[in-house]
Design goal:
This protein has helices spanning 52-69, 73-86, 91-103, 107-120, 125-137, 141-152, 161-173, 177-190, 195-208, 211-224, 229-242, 245-258, 263-270; strands at 3-4, 225-226. It has a two-stranded parallel ribbon. Helix 8 (177-190) packs antiparallel against helix 9 (195-208). By secondary structure, the chain is mainly alpha-helical.
Length: 275
């Protein structure tokens, strides 16, 4: 069964990708993640070395992360504040706090939260990845690449595809296609089911005029996930570029039927295939 994925929404910050033991390649060229593992030097959750204080704070953090993913920011903030009261030195709490404030549009508090967490655990991969995405979202794309590279320096990081595809997206925003391609390709190699990497590689190659290469990623994406309007629109434009009229018509029909009110359907009606 195909998985359902909203490719267009905050591609990297909240995707829970499958863990992978393959290391990512550090980023050159100079979305966030919920804390999923203890920082360097921290006891493993549930291990005998984990203190009662840390265990209680971790449980609050897990609840906060769940509420955050549900969009219940008020309850998430309450849980995070309780976690900080229990253990003010638990760095991952500040990473999620930064994400919540960022989504609430409070950039100053988000910045303070990320910086506080990084002072406690400067090499924490999740914190660096999340802060990198925040930097990218606030017009500091070049600085974000350095944070993603720091996240990848952790050889035990379970989801290296996240900072890699985040770096690809942020490099695209500043027009650095070479860095974007390199990191998106590496994300795809690390995790061949990575929808974010496949989508953006398809867009990148279509824009370059390499429609056959774009088609490879688009077809793989549609074969693995339930289509979104963005995914169908990408596939449709690729087939249009290749002159495959039957495939184009089929995709246009799906787009109109499934997503009649989407921006992509509006672009189709206007014949704006470059959009």
């Amino acid at each position: 069964m195909k998985a359902s994925l909203a490719v267009a929404a905050a591609f990297a910050s909240l995707l829970w990708l499958a863990g992978c033991a393959t290391d990512g390649t550090p980023i050159s060229g100079s979305g966030a993640s919920i804390a999923s593992a203890p920082g360097a030097g921290s006891p493993l959750p549930g291990s005998p070395d984990e203190s009662e204080q840390r265990r209680r704070a971790r449980i609050r953090l897990e609840l906060a992360a769940s509420y955050y993913q549900q969009g219940n920011f008020t309850v998430a903030l309450d849980e995070l504040r309780q976690a900080i009261e229990i253990d003010p030195n638990y760095a991952p709490v500040y990473g999620v706090l930064g994400l919540v404030y960022s989504d609430l549009g409070d950039r100053d508090r988000a910045e303070d939260a990320f910086q506080h967490g990084l002072r406690l655990a400067p090499n924490d991969a999740d914190l660096n990845n999340s802060y990198g995405w925040f930097l990218c979202q606030t017009g500091r794309e070049r600085a974000s690449l350095e944070r993603f590279a720091r996240a990848l320096n952790d050889p035990l990081y379970r989801t290296p595809a996240k900072p890699l595809h985040n770096a690809g997206i942020c490099a695209l925003r500043i027009g650095d296609e070479e860095t974007a391609e390199r990191n998106l390709q590496r994300a795809f190699q690390v995790d061949p089911s990575n929808a974010v990497a496949m989508y953006h590689l398809g867009e990148l190659y279509l824009r370059r005029g390499d429609a056959n290469r774009a088609r490879f990623y688009s077809q793989r994406l549609l074969g693995a996930y339930e289509p979104t309007s963005q995914m169908l629109w990408l596939a449709l434009r690729i087939e249009h570029s290749l002159g495959n009229l039957d495939a184009e018509k089929s995709l246009a029909l799906q787009l109109r039927r499934r997503f009649p009110d989407s921006p992509e359907t509006a672009l189709l009606a206007q014949g704006r295939f470059g959009g």
